[in-house]
Amino acid sequence: MDSILVTGNGPLNGQIPIAGAKNACLTLMPATLLSEEPLTLTNAPRLSDIKTMTALLQSLGAEVSSLQEGQVLAMSSHDLTSHTADYEIVRKMRASNLVLGPMLARLGQAVVSLPGGCAIGARPMDLHIEGLEALGAEIELKDGYLHAKAPGGLKGAVHEMRFASVGATENIVMAATLARGTTVLKNAAREPEIVDLVECLRKMGAQISGEGSPVIEIQGVDHLHGATHQVVTDRIELGTYMLAPAICGGEVELLGGQMRLVESFAAKLDAAGISVMETDKGLKVARKNGRVTAVDVVTEPFPGFPTDLQAQMMALMCTAEGVSVLEERIFENRFMHAPELVRMGANIEVHGGTATVTGVDRLKGAPVMATDLRASVSLILAGLAAEGETTVNRVYHLDRGYEHVVRKLESVGAKIERIKGQ
Ligand code: EPZ
Question: Which of 65, 236, 250, 346 could bridge to 341 as Cys pair (CB 3.0-4.6 Å)?
């Protein structure tokens, strides 16, 4: 297995281009199942998760061509040959469950493996099931697979979700586009990736309104046509790299960054003593003065502080002045980066869903272990500012969500290299 060697070496300066959003692309790709006509995505990120979703769609009979070094995905689901999403693929990536809604809507049936738990939590699918059953689907769990059918097609309904689940919102909205009649989805998730999905579905002929608000209304149509859609900028990659100059000092411009995608995150950085300025090319980030000030963080559904930036923010708080309390309200086990940061000299106490971080002057490089996608990059950020060398192991997690991390950080002056595993 490969590892990444990082050497703390002072301020970073320059520009980092931000790619298309992994979590938008992973819901835009299954949307191809809703139409017999071609769907083309541009600005797609080059990530292993995208390759996994490609393999899943191809296993259903869809054609997916990766063009222009992976930045364009040309897809066509004219002839689907299967309606089963196999455990072997789904267990690797939970987002595989996003084929459930589209397959039900297009084929009237779907067999999708339950994803099983993952490092950060149980991540059940009860909210997906409740929403699709509200649209008339019959779903039963057998041998670890969800067997869903809607022989007479789906029917619009008014449905309020118990929690604003991102994935459940995406599955229900995609299914409702081809249901008979009107669907009103209440307590819908408001993430920018959902807004991006709806904008793409609208280009395909879907009748949808309210995206980005807690109530989304969908008028079902008979069929959807093809479209071409540019994937929205990745706000989590953006937020991650905004933390590089915050942790190391210097000034970095994030090309393609948009303030509307990271408002609550940028506000927290501002409170911590980090300036975030909009430029005509993106966002420019630098420390306002000397040391960073500790701030408290509570993760919430959008537009609150994103859970996917919690690990990275904790890395910044490790060397901030004062005490920071980070409360993780979305996932039940998303502090696995904490013990690794402690190995680097951080002072962190975890009690249930709360981590208390007391800033220290400087972290010390050490060999550490990546446990999940966002934890892996928080360890790299910590290594950038630590004294000496940090080796981050199990970087396959990283490849799932960050394209060309070494190249992007090297380009602003980081001492970082990827060590090929034996
Ligand atoms: C999406 O996951 C993202 N993944 C996650 O990003 C992100 O952390 C999460 O939303 C929250 O923002 C993709 O978009 C591919 P949820 P999703 O359904 O849809 C519970 C990353 O690092 N829940 O909003 O799975 C669930 O267990 C990944 O890029 C139920 O209880 O998130 C969790 O505690 C990690 N029942 C909470 O809700 C359900 O039916 C949030 O889950 C569904 C979810």
Answer: 346
pTM assigned to the model? 0.97
Please give the domain boundaries of the chain with CATH numbers for all domains: 3-18+233-419 (3.65.10.10), 22-230 (3.65.10.10)
Query: Who contacts 422 (Cβ-Cβ below 8 Å, separation ≥6)?
Result: none
Report how far ligand 1's centroid is from the alpha carbon of 115 (Å): 12
pLDDT (tens digit per residue) in 139-176:
999 999 999 999 899 999 999 999 999 999 999 999 99
pLDDT digits (tens, 9 = 90+) for 119-138: 777 778 999 999 999 999 99
| Residue to probe by mutation, ligand 1, list 163, 240, 336, most atoms within 8 Å of CB | 163
For the CA of 26, the closest atom of ligand 1 is 15
